[in-house]
Amino acid sequence: MTASDQAISSEFAALVSAASVEISSHGHQLSALQDNFDRGTNVTITFLPGDDYRRNVETAAALRRAGYNPIPHIAAREMASRDSLSDFLERARGEADVTRVLVIAGDVAAAKGPFRSSLDVCHSGLIEAHGISSVSVAGHPEGHPFLTPQNAFKMLGAWRDWGRQAGVRLEVMTQFCFEAAPILGWIGELEAHGGLPVIVGLAGPATPATLIKFALRCGIGNSIRSVRNQIGRFGRLLTDAGPDEVIRGLQSGFEKTNASIAGIHLFPFGGLRKAGAWRRQFALSPADRPAR
Length: 292
Description:
Elements (H helix, E strand, L loop, with lengths): L9 H8 L2 E4 L6 H7 L5 E4 L7 H13 L3 E7 L6 H15 L3 E5 L13 H6 L2 H4 L4 E6 L9 H18 L2 E6 L5 H13 L5 E6 L4 H11 L5 H11 L9 H14 L5 E5 L4 H11 L10
Parallel strand pairs: 1-2, 1-8, 2-3, 3-4, 4-5, 5-6, 6-7, 7-8
Helix pairs in contact: 2-12, 3-4, 8-11, 9-10
């Protein structure tokens, strides 16, 4: 049986069918989201440098009205003050019924306020004070640009301890990779450090050229070679590549180790239409899938 013919288990089919997806904080993708993802889908909302958290709340509220579950990013270094973070959380709860957030440090070198790291946000006491019941934090299977692996796992352990004390559910959402091996190895190390539920981030279907662009921007490691190999094998830059092989590699790895993941998250680099179509088609049996 070849990798392309390998059937996925019912467990992985369910994970793919329920995959969350990311949209821009600008809110202009709502129509495309409605055309390609079912109501009830978990949708993360980016917080890019220079974003105004009030607009992010407006996007979250629009998602909630449309029947989706908004999960705003909180970029620690973008928060100008404790009051700003408190206002962000209060508005998100009151206007969009947000109960889950994804906390990141942010893509700026210098903090605009008192929060220099994601841990500073958790230690503020504001997350639990505003009734947020679930928090996702970032994991980096191919390494963090500024943290050693040991310090990265130590930080995740600090998050886990905080979650237990605060009564908040903690999950790790990983950066995307183009191979399963780094993800499997990293999850194994996380388990050795006490473990946390893991949502695996995957790059949605896009051309290899687009994937390489985002990989370089996001600091993806050695697994980028798999995308470059596709270009080398087929000589094509314009043929979409999806995360099929990563999913099958994860399934194979988990069957051998009895490990598991809590969910899948799609970064729709090739657009929401392609990501939604992939999500629907991949859960079908090989015989039922349309030819690619």
